[in-house]
Amino acid sequence: MINIPSTIRISFRALRVNKMRSSLTMLGIIIGVGAVIAMLAVGTGARQKIAEQISSIGSNLLIVLSGASTSGGRRMGSGTQPSLSLGDAEAIKRECPSVQDVAPVLGGIGQVVFGNMNWSTGVTGTTPSMLAVRDWNLSSGRMFTEDDVKGATKVCILGQTVVDNLFGSIDPVGSVIRINKIPFTVVGVLEIKGQSPGGQDQDDTIYVPITTAQKKLFGTAFPGMIRMMMVKARTVEDLLRAEQEIAELLRQRHKIGQKQEDDFTVRNLTQMLQATEQSTKVMTILLGAIASVSLLVGGIGIMNIMLVSVTERTREIGIRMAVGAKTWDIRLQFIIEALTLSMIGGVAGILVGLGVSEALALFAGWSVIVSPFSVILSFGFSGIVGISFGFYPAYKASLLDPIEALRYE
Amino acid sequence: MGLIEAQGISKTYSFGEVEVRALCPTSLTIEAAEFIAIMGPSGSGKSTLMNILGCLDKPTTGTYLLDGVDVGGLGRDERAEIRNKKIGFVFQGFNLLPRTSAIENVELPLLYDGLSAQDRRQRALTALKKVGLEGREDHHPSQLSGGQQQRVAIARALVNNAPLILADEPTGNLDTKTSAEIMDLFVKLNTGSNITVMLVTHEPDIAAYSRRVIRFLDGCIVSDEVKKAS
Ligand SMILES: Nc1ncnc2c1ncn2[C@@H]1O[C@H](COP(=O)(O)OP(=O)(O)OP(=O)(O)O)[C@@H](O)[C@H]1O
Ligand SMILES: [Mg+2]
Q1: Count H helices, E strands: chain A?
Q2: CATH 3.30.420.10 at B35-51+75-226, yes or no
């Protein structure tokens, strides 16, 4: 009969006798488990952040920019030449069945003043559709209306960062601010949205009617032109179809022939972000795999030490066999020793992993998420490592001949 | 029936072509509560016989009944169990676990017998008391003299109430005075507790403690004398 509690006690004593060696052996597992947890935390955090950004920028988004992405074989920055008009935006909304809504954009930097406070921020001219396109709501007040757009009235809505910098805790709705010295009435405040995928503060913004931007704020040499438009497709599946419909319509409206190049660029923002998310996922798996290798190396370290230990303790094994230890008594003793090393190493590794993740979040500002799954996974993995790498040394020990083992010097 | 009934047991080691006969076919009967000394020159097969009788080794030929059980056909684990229950070993080199207290060394056979921690401790203390090591239970082997270490080993052989103690040169590493003390202890266990003691020795002084002397030469028994009651 195998006496598990005393076998555990025997194993613990053997480990305590060789404290230094035991802790060095554990170090391999500690580093392995710690690495797995920290790596998965970084990966999961990055993915979560991208997922948040995808939903923050608005779902099923296409962006149509002025200018070709290439011009005569030479790459040009898209948006450099204004070629899109408000009419194009209206036509897309009217004629493309896969498109749900369109928001034209013409913007620039504006110096904003309220009382003795001033702030410099991006001012975007657009239409009321913007809120629907970007899945954005107001926290107070109202959005400007189509009538405001038609009449080019001087009204605006503010992002929370602008409110914080100009108004502090005062409710800005109804106040008059000056954008580039022109007075605008604040009619609404946007909900907080946070950072964009590019790391910009999306709340540091002001929206005004697009006509007002064209005529009063950023009058250009090309009247009626817009810089770009944001298009919301009906569903994710409609994104590609919407892309084709828009391209076809614009080529027709801009009278671009078969062989000629487009004077606009359509970008599938959602797809780009999803691709990023996908690559982050791959990166997470890769990081986890690399970290697992170090866990494996830790396991080999355990096997190495256990083999040394079996050889060193040959005589002890002989004594135990002489007084009645059976095959599995000996095997279990060494397996439990290996398991104890790997499990204690696993627990310490989890703590190290949590600490490293916390430190990365605190000092490097990374978004890290330690999922319970990764903790369970690495703990279970370290247990498996202990049993599987402990088995061979234990098996070897149990096969020793008691007479020879007793004679071993 | 005797405690030990061996019929024609022999041991041959073969290295390819060459065969070394360590023990001739030997028949031996040993009754309970005997005190036997085995003597003979080095390499004459004394330890080989002890290992077979102690179920550490299997004879090449012959049958061996220990306490009525035919040990010949038993497997590794079954022989381990026989050693645990029926046999106590005492070695020349003590063979205690280093860095382990006296009481834990004595408890060792009980660990493989599934006893509770409390029972183990109780019985180990009793055994240590029998060998005169009261108060030394927490000493490690390195803190004990040779004679004391051998007493711990004897306590370990006693702890499972085995009917047979096999001691291969138990006084080989001890001085004359300590040897005498250890032999007195064996005599006490033999007469007081009816334990069969079988020991190997080179020294006539040690053999003089026994009541039966078996002499070996080149793997064969050359004489088997039972002394007249003194
Ligand atoms: N494992 C082994 N392999 C081969 N030969 C062995 C083995 N064990 C013992 N022998 C041989 O068997 C013979 C008897 O050995 P054994 O150890 O029984 O002698 P012994 O009487 O105990 O001697 P000593 O007094 O020196 O202890 C010797 O010739 C020895 O070389
Ligand atoms: Mg010998």
Answers
A1: 13, 14
A2: no
